[in-house]
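Quick log. Single chain, no ligands specified.
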Amino acid sequence: MSIAIITGSAGLVGSEAASYFHEKGFEIVGIDNNLRKEFFGEDATTDERKRILSQSLKNYRHHDEDIRNDQFIESLFENYGNQIKLIVHTAAQPSHDWAVRSPKTDFSVNAVGTLNLLEAARRHCPETVFIYTSTNKVYGDAPNRLPLREREKRWEIDESHPFYENGVDETMSIDDTTHSLFGVSKTAGDLLVQEYGRYFGMNTAAFRGGCLTGSRHAGAELHGFLSYLVKCALTGKKYTIYGYKGKQVRDQVHSLDLVRAFWHFFENPRQGEVYNIGGSRQNHCSVLEAIELIDKIAGKTVDYRYEDKARIGDHIWWVSDIRKFQNHYPNWRLEFGLEDIIGDIIENSQWQQREPATSEPFEIK
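-> predicted structure:
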């Protein structure tokens, strides 16, 4: 049986990938030690998702291990060898704000952990497909230099700019910007994935995601913008908007649409690729517009306050240009619209009756 190793397997994208590729006939080896709970508190625990996967997927094996443990990673890859046909690397420290608390932890998880996996793959299964969930934060605050115009409920790029119609493409530079420490560590992993593809000829891709979301997301104040916003609406928790008048724009992609993209890449892999991936112009909104949509769909008004202080390196406007991936894989398309995504979170999230934990300012990602 072909094996897929999935890191962060109890998280949003990892659990979606575990279910999807299990259905495709893979034996799934999941790695997830629930660091998310350590990062963001009990409200963000992935224990329940791990339980569901272990009980519902016949060919799923879970390891409560850390990707920074090079000895474990080496032993695992040596054991399975060339049976490993796919690696989906989603494990990460995903927050701007948390990274400042412990830069060494952030870098060791996002950069060193990625290197451990790449090197083990090169040594034991060099023909495997290696998929890395990168982030649009590799561009740092460069998007904020775009010619932006303030509108009633959102910031919008000037209509004369080449990025207006389809969003930001992969030609935007990742240099000479303020990334945040989180952005730096994820960029390091992104570059490693590219280099192992180009230098060693491995089948690798870095998917630079916009806002990844869906009902599997254990949204917390420090991470998981849309999921946490819906959670606040349904529980009555006060939500805080930080900076840019709440008009900052994000595109939203459902985790299942993202994992379907992974499948297309697996079927016809390339070496050292990078793809901007997100909701594109099809699924984007400002914070204020998201609040209005939740009110429309759920009939719940979000109780929020505003703090006129934006986070360092935060994007004012981001929409992913996904045409490069679509050109390479024309049979892939987004199947979840923005209202579908919000409806899925409202109907299927397991935290609906739980009060969100109190924490420090969250990141919109």
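Confidence is low (pLDDT under 50) at residues 351-365.
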